[in-house]
Amino acid sequence: MPKIPYGRQHIDEDDIRAVAETLRSDFLTTGPKVGEFEQAVANFCNVQHGVAVCNGTAALHAAMFALGIGSGDEVIVPPMTFAASANCVLYMGGTPVFADVQEGSLLIDPAKVKEKITSNTKAIIAVDYTGQPCNWEALRSLADKHNLALVADGCHALGASYKDRKVGSIADMTVFSFHPVKHVATGEGGMILTDDAELDAKLRTFRNHGITTDARTREESGAWFYEMVELGYNYRITDIQAALGVSQMAKLPAFLERRREIAKRYDKSFAGTNVIPLAVSEEVEHAYHLYVVRLANRDEVYTMLRDAGIFAQVHYIPVHLHPYYQEKLGTGEGLCPIAEAAYKEILSLPMYPGLTDQEQDYVIKTVLELA
Ligand SMILES: *Cc1c(COP(=O)(O)O)cnc(C)c1O
Hints:
By secondary structure, the protein is α/β, with parallel strands linked by helices.
């Protein structure tokens, strides 16, 4: 019996060699590899600054800190995402406000965002769900009109573009994750990209306890003096992880190509069937972190796939339906009806560069038998 997950990392001997080299070097945590990794991601996305941190959730927290989000501030977020996209607002004492998604794509609906803007709104966090960029033009015009910061949770979308602009270069800050199921793996890891030097400086301070210099800079300049100017955290990534990230970034174009090839085969196989893929806009280049379909009998298909060794997954339980949110924020059923209806039907099918054609054929055949 095969065992096919919905997503997994793709590590080769180059990657292993890169990590082993770093283990033999002087730096295990912040060293030359962190800067190299930041440069590699920033260059790939055509952005000035990249700040690497220990995971995508820390990256979101750092972004909220850099914007100065605090008590009384509202940040608009979509419900169809991982809880971290909204939790980061709560970390800073702010209030996440949910704006429902669009029917076909399940991406945040700019018209719903507009309805949720109040005098307390400070920012919008839009999620490029599954790897498809949101309607950034509409979001940008809302943000500019109401003087809001625009943050992209791009954790699904490294390598995607919107109207020929790479995700990472569109919002004021873009957050990536390097969890093993994402496009590039570092074990745990995250990054914030921005073209704004002031935000960059705040992010760097935040990841290192709120201290303005790091240990390596002090060592090089021969100075012992440092000062803590903000309440930051230890959100640093290690040089070991960054070495893996640098090695993985070189393979990103090939990873993306393979993911798009897999998506094309799914699209073709499901056309005209009961398996309905999410709508994709003509204006985007999709990065396919996930391949999500809608199925009337989702629960049944999920269980039978699992029995066939295919570990599909549901992305996501709408954030506002999690018990914590219902209890603390009073959110619940009826707040975002489109996301709630979609939640009952969505299923993420296996999608990762190492998925073979034979494995994919088996997935397609099994899904079509059950749908
Ligand atoms: C993976 C993910 C995160 C969190 O990233 P971690 O590195 O696991 O902390 C945040 N938002 C979205 C949309 C994600 O998919």
